[in-house]
Amino acid sequence: MLAAGQDIDRVRVQLSRWVTSGRVLRIHKGWYTLNEPFRRVRIDSNVIASTIKQGSYISLQSALSFHGVIPEYVAETTCVTTGRPIAIDSPFGRIRYRHIKRNAFFGYLRVENGLQHAYVATPEKALLDLVYLTPGSEDRAYLSELRLQQTEAFDLDEMRRMAVRFDAPRLERTVGLFCRLTGGEQKHA
User: From CA 149, how far away is CA 89, in angstroms rounded?
Assistant: First the structure.
């Protein structure tokens, strides 16, 4: 919470009053926004999720849903970070941050939404993050249960390169299985 030139205790008291009166909405520790009748900009939960914890990007089912690759509604926004894992319940939904090793922190895009932006994994990276962070997910049954759509949009060569960067052989095997399941092996052989 920054208030240049202000007594921090006075700022806290004023924020508390505004929250109590309904003018300001507390998102998370030190993060506030104007409440609905006073807000001029629509709040994007993806922007909040990738902003609250610096050094994070939206991934796993949240990114797959964002890209239209899975049909299910995703109830919480999941991000990956090299920092500590944490779950936050905000007025804009639950946000879960999952830890990933530093050499696996790549493969995301800056997505613009008006004057706001969020960092979102590419579909290929979101799927790899999901398999990497979900025990038992590297088998045929799990990949089939995801009911992936628009699989032709996946860049399989890029997915293979990403899997190698993880330095996790099971991801390379999963990419091979994914290619066989989607018929991509013939296209990229």
Answer: 30
